[in-house]
Design brief:
ferrous iron binding, Frataxin/CyaY_sf, 2 helices, 110 residues, Frataxin_CS, alpha+beta, 6 strands, metal-binding, iron, Metal Transport, Frataxin, Chain A, 35% helix, six-stranded antiparallel beta sheet
């Protein structure tokens, strides 16, 4: 993947996650704090647990850190996929975000 493609796709993902955090805050009464510093997005839940999503340009990857561990994603088949399991980023992210939030969450932002 070209550097420009990587940065555009990774940036799109981070912006979508920021927008989703705002939607959860406004629509679902989930008090999630989204903090962005460059290529790092930190989501803090009321129970003080965090999920961190960050860009890894040298590897053309996006990483997710959750209570259960770390996950690496690479663009494949037109989506971000876990480098080990092949699962889609959205699936893994929602699983861990829901677990840490203590309730089932869904993406409402396209």
């Amino acid at each position: 993947m070209q550097d420009a493609d990587y940065h555009q796709r990774a940036e799109t993902l981070l912006r979508r996650l920021e927008a989703q955090a705002d939607a959860w805050l406004q629509e679902d009464d989930l008090d999630v704090d989204a903090s962005r510093n460059g290529g790092v997005l930190e989501l803090t839940l009321p129970n003080r647990t965090k999920l961190v999503v960050n860009k890894q340009p040298p590897l053309s990857e996006v990483w997710l850190a959750a209570q259960a561990g770390g996950f690496h994603f690479r663009w494949r088949d037109d989506q971000w996929r876990d480098t080990k399991s092949g699962e889609r980023f959205e699936q893994v992210f929602l699983e861990h975000m829901s677990r840490q939030a203590g309730r089932a969450l869904q993406f409402t932002v396209a």
